[in-house]
Amino acid sequence: MRVLHLPYGSPMIELSNALRSKGIQSTSCHFNKHPFEFKPDICLQLNTLSNQEQTKKLKQFLKESMLHYDIFHFHFGETFFADKSDLKMLERAGKKMVVHHHGSEIRLKSIAQTNNPYVRIKPEWTEEKINRNNSMLANYIDHAIVQDYELESYIKTAYKHVHVIPHTIDANQYTPRYPSPKNASPLIVHAPSSRHMKGTEFIIDAVNELKRSGLSFQFQLIEGVSNEEAKNLIAKADIVIDQLLIGANGYISSEAMAYGKPVICYIRHDLVAKYPSGLPVVNANPDTITAVLKNLLQNPQKWKELGVKGRQYIAKNHHAPIVADHYIDIYKTL
């Protein structure tokens, strides 16, 4: 079973590595070199080429890939070509395909805002564009994958089969560093991939208000650094804040819990029960972040307790060998 993952993303790389550990010949491919310095198996570095050269290289890569791979696992709703013309070619060649959606490319505001007054949508992803993209994919692909039920709600009728599979985390690659309750000046970190989408301004406002009130702590935004450096900073933190607007925890939450850190994140209340039992995320939204963060800072005895529970939660529900089996089961049905 030979699987190709494309075109970008750290979770994609982790998943591909997990599949390899289970004996699957899996390859991760980024089309472009990423500023966070992710390390896929292949990087085409298309962003260093002219438009004409990009098209030529992609066509050649598709031709070679069709000879080598059995299953094509597309992430973020993207394929080889923007017009999705490659899907017909892959189908004619008898290749199997799945699509893996991760967020904004399927988040419909008309659905999201019924249960979430805080949600923001990336302006480039209009509902018309999302529905058109899903329709093109669903013409050739029966199986779609998402990491949580917040995302599942947007595509549950778009594909024949929608699977909810948690983030893939190789827990063995994350050595827990539980926070000490004796730390008089704990470090809080927030690593937004997009300040607008994560609600960073509400976090900064809360931090400033709490500092003015006399609480002693450090705060660091993690931006513009490599993936490896971001992980090192999370490993040093005492508290990690993920996001306050989307209503589901992101990959940062999973990585932070793997490191044994207490995590603050907004989980929609109607979705909490759909997570595996024992989710230790401290829930906060833009209206409550100041009070929630203050309470956590003033109760340092909770830090390690939450960190231990988070690490156990990741080991039970997200550990790579466990999660990889779910994907292998899907591949076998194609």
TrEMBL record:
Q: Sorted alphabetically, which keywords does the UniProt record give?
A: Transferase
Q: Is the keyword NAD assigned to this protein?
A: no
Q: Which domain of life is it from?
A: Bacteria
CDD domains linked: GT4_PimA-like
Question: Per its UniProt record, what Gene3D superfamilies does this chain match?
Answer: Glycogen Phosphorylase B
User: A Gene Ontology biological process annotation?
Assistant: lipopolysaccharide biosynthetic process
A GO MF annotation of the entry reads: glycosyltransferase activity
PANTHER family hit by this protein = GLYCOSYLTRANSFERASE WBBK-RELATED
**What is this protein called in UniProt?**
Glycosyltransferase involved in cell wall bisynthesis
Q: Which organism is it from?
A: Lentibacillus persicus
